[in-house]
Amino acid sequence: xxxxxxILIANRGEIALRIIRTCKEMGIKTVAVYSTADSESLHxxxxxxxxxxxxxxxxxxxxxxxxxxAAVEITDADALHPGYGFLAENAEFAELCTEYGIKFIGxxxxxxxxxxxxxxxxETMIKAGVPVVPGSEGLLKDVKHGLKMxxxxxxxxxxxxxxxxxxxxxxxxxxxxxxxxxWDSARxxxxxxxxxxxxxxxxxxxxxxxxxxxIAGDQHGHVCHLSERDxxxxxxxxxxxxxxxxxxxxxxxxxxxxxAAIKAGAAINYEGVGTVEFLVDKHRDFYFMEMNTRIQxxxxxxxxxxxxxxxxxxxxxxxxxxxxxxxxxxxMHAIECRINAEDPYHDFRPSPGKISSFHSSKGHGVRVDxxxxxxxxxxxxxxxxxxxxxCRAQTREECIQxxxxxxxxxxxEGVKTTVPFHQKLMRDERFLxxxxxxxxxxxxxxxxxxxxIDG
Length: 455
Fold this sequence. Notes:
Layout: E1 6-9, H1 13-25, E2 29-35, H2 42-46, E3 49-54, H3 65-75, E4 79-81, H4 91-99, E5 103-104, H5 109-116, H6 118-128, H7 143-153, E6 157-161, E7 171-173, H8 179-194, E8 199-203, E9 209-217, E10 223-235, E11 238-244, H9 251-267, E12 272-280, E13 286-292, H10 299-306, H11 310-318, E14 333-340, E15 342-343, E16 349-350, E17 353-354, E18 357-359, E19 366-370, E20 377-378, E21 385-393, H12 396-409, E22 411-413, H13 419-425, H14 429-433
Parallel strand pairs: 1-2, 1-4, 2-3, 4-5
Antiparallel strand pairs: 6-7, 6-8, 9-10, 9-12, 10-11, 11-14, 12-13, 14-21, 15-16, 17-20, 18-22, 19-21
Helix pairs in contact: 4-5
């Protein structure tokens, strides 16, 4: 007897297809929802049922709660998986699912709300004994208050939107006379992006590593960690490459960060799969940054190094199944490259359009998660990620060699992609040595289009 009869996936693209695959293996029926722009997507084809929920605009389809709930009623689904992005961390949506009598596969609305607001999350972590970045206690009242706090903390500082994400509403301030213009800019962007222009200030950690700990918590009070992912290769706060284990962590630091992540989850009686994100400075001191109360894009990296289906675990936890409570550590090395429909030679500008030819990499230890194929048209309305290429091997060196081979085999014609960027990165001496941080790509030169990748 399956844990749920039918799960509606309130998302699109590769993550929707990823969830459908696990549901099928568990004997659970699936419902895909889609916009008119996604009618030819593979998640629509492979679900047991599919319901169109609106036009191409996200606001009228994937962010339209009432349309999604109408699809729930039409199909008689008894559970809903939000994937990542869109409504995955929307407390109101989680509450709406409860009102409709459908199980939201994720944490409660209260957990989402508490961790979604960065000030509340920071206060919770301080009480739990988790290290946090020095900063203001609560939101800044005005510029004068901000200047006072920045002086006390010491420059450089980072202005952050309390409702932020994806790098929006964030500004680095290096000295006092730059504070006011950055304050105005951050508030304006935060208000436009999130409908909330609340700003707080933190110490800016120079040359940080972005390292996150995967956790899982069940309805019986167990919280465990599934080790770390290093997400330091990023552009404008958007991750491009992730790997596990981190080449920067040693066993002692890995254990300390794992224990801190468990404290973070236990502090809110966390239910579901989530990620506790940290900044780690060059002195190996680590600080809580935020908690994501959903599955991550890069969950595949963890799955590969510990042989653990995180989507399956999410579903089991939502159904009330008790976990073992054991922590997991990497037994292999895995690297994920995000393949985006972007032109890396022209500031990564989006490149939607029709894919004329598509060949994904194959072979031992190579995994490709994607919803695209030859003849598929990439719509301009959504995130530009079209595939994830994940390689697994016994060591980091072997994994990089495998990734080089896999990237050379990856063929997408008709649109520009980030494959050339990844090919160049996998041959960069600093990356090969593990000597990088979140500002690494500011100094990275991809070269000219058509240039020999090895050159």
